[in-house]
Amino acid sequence: MKRLSFLLFIILLSLIPVSAISAQKITPGSTCKVLNQKVVYQSKSYNCIKSGKKLVWNKGVKVETTTSTFEFTSVCQADPYVPKEWAEYQKNISAYGCNPPYRYVKQSLTSQLPTTIQSSRTELLQVSECKLSRSEPWKYHLNNNLILNPNLVVQIVPFATRDYPATSDPRLDWKLYVDYLTSSLSNMTDGPSNYQFRIAPKYYTTTTNLTDYKLSGAVSHGEATGNPSRYKLISDVLAVADSEIDFTGADYIFFFSPLSVSRDVLGNQIAWGQSVTTREKTFRGNSYITSYVNDFKSKYWIQIEPFSFIHEMMHIFGSAEDYYGDINYGGTEVGTGNWGNMSGARMDHLIWDRWNVQMISDDQVRCVSNDKTSINWIKPSTITGAHEKLLMVPITKFEGLVVESIRASGFNYKIPKAQQGAIVYRVNTAQIDEKVVHGDGIYIQCPKNKICRKEPTLGGFRMAEAVLKVGDFVESNGVKITVVESGDFGDVVKVEKVS
Q1: Are 383 and 275 members of one domain?
Q2: pLDDT tens per residue, range 88-146
Q3: How much is the pLDDT for 333?
Q4: Both 180 and 293 in a single domain?
Q5: Between 308-316 and 175-188, two packed helices, what is the crossing angle to 10 degrees?
Q6: Strand-pair partners of 199
Q7: Which of these, 323, 280, 264, lies nearest to 443 by C-alpha position?
Q8: How many domains, in total, are found in the chain?
Q9: Average pLDDT over residues 326-331
Q10: Most exposed: 60, 93, 142, 498, by fewest CB within 10 Å?
Q11: Cα 491 to the chain's mean position, in Å?
Q12: pTM of the full predicted structure?
């Protein structure tokens, strides 16, 4: 009984928000004490950054919240509470399009607690045993700060051309979008973060015409052997910009055009695998080129803007592959269906993806044995706070089972009740890194008592039936995973060896 009371005390203590234990008044530029500390104060999220020799609070990012009890019936449903700055985007979705999330809904962990007592962390495996082996290219990207990470710095180079000149301030032109990128990444990251998108104060004009590069939205940005004109454009822009921009400290370079450029002329382009050298350093990651995201009249306008960046960032930064086990390849396993952002870009990233890019920490992972019974409470993967959100069962050095709790919050705020519960997916890093089949290596596991259809169901969602409710279980790789309790608090999951 004393042990139970102590556990409840620790859990309740963890629910106290930072604002409740800090009486400090926070204003941009005022001093702070802990580098990279993140604090929510008066509806803004502030980061403690270094300015010269001092630690100060940054300007802060508005925290998007909602008190609405509106329940969506499909992830594709239009959002009646769409932020006004994105309302025109939702209005222009075609009749057959799927409305993306336009806001991030921050929700704290409920005060409701499960009645089932979970296994102590002392009974679990070391988290290192759940870190699956990765290929040398992945290790290279990781060791050279080339994958997405909470301290990522992107230098944005605004550019103009003879046929598309610009005299406005790109920092104002692109502010809405840049703020969206920064706040989205910050909101998805549970620990300290300092994502930076530095944008130069003017457009740098080349002596060329943009139309000559032939990089319209018709040109697929996803082709690794894409139009070499994208590399020529980068070279031409840097020829006039490099002498004035300090690239020190940047990890990646983005190139943004004037707002007058149509998607008919320039789509979003990933410049794959070619080094870019400036005076300060050589950039070995992918570069990104784009026109503005609101060209509704163009047939090449991407209907999931601005949310498409949440998907594209994993490609740009080499952090995740696309369409895990694409359904077009047939077979009995069909990847993740539409679960996770990389398979359809309708929801937040899988918690395993977020762990890989340090959006959650090792302390939030419960690593459990595949031959020993354990009880594990996992909190909703998109709830605010550094809670335990990832349950993993290692099978081999390349393979493991991941359990994640899905609820309507974060970028998953449109997940309907029917799809709220736990999902289980098998991860095989050897297949992911080998890339024999595009996006192979992550597979949703269907509960024993259900048929998971690869055809779109429940609002156009593939594999919608894969969610586990109380009593549902999955058997995979000699392991049985059962949901024994469920609620707003997340899911309590029993892991045991198949008898």
Answers
A1: no
A2: 999 999 877 899 999 999 999 988 899 999 999 999 999 999 999 999 988 988 888 88
A3: 53
A4: yes
A5: 70
A6: 156
A7: 323
A8: 3
A9: 49
A10: 498
A11: 22
A12: 0.83
